[in-house]
Design brief:
228 residues, 9 helices, 72% helix
Length: 228
């Protein structure tokens, strides 16, 4: 149970700080500063949470990561189900915290949907959006599997490497899909946005569930083949 609580907390923090930063600064391509601040926020959360709850749950805080770890034989199917449920609930809690903060404080949500993902950057193309999410998740999960491999020997630097990689994929992906690479991170804000009257994010939510899961599965298969 403790590892599920850790995943709940970690995912709630990820959504609160990552999506919250996006809501506050926006993602304006004209200056690029919003991109970088949001990318850093997501990456730094992973660094912090890796050293906070990593020794308890592994700090997946992402169903796609949990799928990759499951396919690598490092967790059971029962644990995988518990992780995913905890992550989705944590994402809902994080988005709920943002709704309370921005609502009570009267702060403008610069993203228009609690930092939820969308297809505006790829002109509404579902195929392009899926491709972006598959590729970016593949890179991210491949890095995690490599860093956490018993053969890697990265020691205490693992969390930093993973956090920097998440920052990197966000720098490219924010302008295209808002960068999900994490079904729970997409799920929480989209549901809360729908509850508050903005149903646009929920309409394309499936892209940000299917894409990351496909990317993670591909990464697990490729890494398993390469590591043999």
């Amino acid at each position: 149970m403790k590892k599920f609580i850790a995943e709940f907390i970690g995912t709630a923090v990820l959504v609160t700080l990552g999506c919250g930063t996006a809501m506050l600064v926006g993602c304006d391509a004209a200056s690029g500063s919003g991109y970088l601040l949001t990318a850093l926020a997501f990456g730094l959360v992973i660094v912090g949470m890796a050293y906070c709850v990593g020794n308890i749950s592994g700090c997946h805080i992402n169903p796609a990561v949990s799928l990759g770890v499951l396919m690598s034989g490092q967790i059971t199917a029962k644990d995988f189900a518990g992780y995913v449920i905890s992550q989705c609930l944590g994402a809902l809690a994080g988005a709920g915290i943002l709704a309370a903060i921005f609502g009570l404080g009267g702060v403008t949500d610069m993203t228009g949907g609690f930092g939820s993902n969308g297809l505006a950057g790829v002109n509404g193309s579902v195929v392009a959006g899926l491709l972006v999410e598959v590729v970016l998740t593949f890179i991210f999960v491949m890095t995690i599997l490599g860093v956490t491999s018993k053969k890697a020997g990265h020691g205490s630097f693992g969390g930093l490497i993973i956090g920097l990689t998440l920052t990197l994929v966000h720098i490219l992906g924010i302008g295209l899909t808002g960068t999900s690479v994490n079904p729970a991170r997409s799920f929480g804000p989209a549901v809360v946005a729908a509850i508050t009257g903005n149903t646009a994010p929920i309409a394309c939510l499936w892209v940000f569930i299917v894409g990351p899961l496909l990317g993670a599965a591909l990464a697990a298969l490729v890494y398993k083949y390469l590591e043999k």
